[in-house]
Write a structure and sequence with these properties.
SET_dom; Beta-clip-like; SET domain-containing protein; mainly beta; SET_dom_sf
């Protein structure tokens, strides 16, 4: 988990990812989803629990998913303030799509 993020209780649902500092627009926060075949080749030193298990849905998200081939990366779509929850619009992609 990057130092700029933490996981804690969310008012949206269950747990969520929150900014521990201000994060500028277009910042790559890390891997959100991994195709199962690639799980064994996950990069050394990375958290093996993708961020996609913790971010919540919003109709006005502050992040988007960017397909990098092997995995989807969570990238900020606007400036995020310290303490703000990281969200993504679930309907912007389909599970199983590459």
């Amino acid at each position: 988990m990057p130092d700029s993020l933490t996981i804690k209780d969310s008012s949206i649902h269950g747990l969520g990812i929150f900014a521990t500092c201000d994060i500028p627009e277009k910042t790559d926060l890390g891997i959100a989803h991994v195709r199962m075949i690639e799980w064994l080749s996950f990069p050394q030193g990375y958290c093996r629990t993708p961020l996609g298990g913790f971010y919540n849905h919003s109709d006005t998200p502050n992040c988007t998913l960017v397909d990098s081939g092997i995995w989807k990366r969570l990238v900020t779509s606007k400036d995020i303030k310290k303490g703000e929850e990281i969200t993504c619009k679930y309907t912007l992609y389909e599970v199983g799509q590459t």
